[in-house]
């Protein structure tokens, strides 16, 4: 699998390239947005590690651009930043980032997160059922497409997995910790705002079907048992 590391600090970039290569990944480094865009246009990547503070612009803007392009929107993005402000995290998740790691970070923890994000995208297909239906909501597992009343809804890979998890357990409450484990792929001390932000974004994208994603105060979320 090929990973693009977009980081302008040479020591951090080389450290990541070395340790990821040791784990068997093919790694390409980029020190700027322009260099990253050049690599993205010429090669296909399985994951992007993206620093926010780059010499020629904001990593958030680049993330937004990546998620808006049909050629790159499905590539998972893990944001790396020295900023520890929750607002920055929320913005990152809202524009489609799959995870968020604050510097200084443990390389081992980052690699675990990389593997967890990649695992979400390579899970085996559901052999017995390739489509889920709930009222006007249709989830095509095989193609990773979601439709509401025949209109296609564009979801990130993480939003798709979150929706599938909620629909597959409809009628049963999922705590935020459960969702972090099942959807994000690991248990961690990530703020529960991470889950809340993704649920809010998912509701908005689902439009009239968003009301079936219900908040259970003090516990978590559940998808309604039936569309009645």
Order of strands, main sheet, comes to 2-1-3-6-7
| Unreliable residue runs | 123-129
SS field, number of helical segments: 8
Percentage of residues assigned to helices: 40-55%
Q: Note the run of SSEs as H and E.
A: EHEHEEEHEHEHEEEEHEHHEE
User: Residue-averaged pLDDT, rounded?
Assistant: 85
Query: Which sheet architecture does the biggest sheet show?
Result: 5 strands, parallel
The CATH architecture of the largest domain can be given as 3-Layer(aba) Sandwich
In the CATH hierarchy, the third-tier topology of the largest domain is known as: Rossmann fold
Query: What CATH first level of the largest domain would be assigned?
Result: Alpha Beta
Spatial extent as radius of gyration: 18 Å
In one word, what is the shape?
globular
SS-based class:
alpha/beta
Alpha-carbon distance between the two ends: 44 Å
Question: What's the total number of strands?
Answer: 14
CATH homologous superfamily heading of the largest domain: Response regulator
Count of structural domains: 2
What percentage of amino acids are in beta strands?
A: 15-25%
State the assembly state of the protein chains.
Answer: single chain
Verbal overview:
Helix 4 packs parallel to helix 8. The protein has a 5-stranded parallel beta sheet with strand order 2-1-3-6-7, sandwiched between helices. Strands 8-9-10-11 form a 4-stranded antiparallel beta sheet, with helices on one face. The chain has a 3-stranded antiparallel beta sheet with strand order 12-14-13. The chain contains 8 helices and 14 strands. The longest helix has 16 residues. The protein has about 230 residues and is α/β, with parallel strands linked by helices. It folds into 2 domains: about 120 residues, Rossmann fold; about 90 residues, Winged helix-like DNA-binding domain superfamily/Winged helix DNA-binding domain (Arc Repressor Mutant, subunit A), CATH 1.10.10.
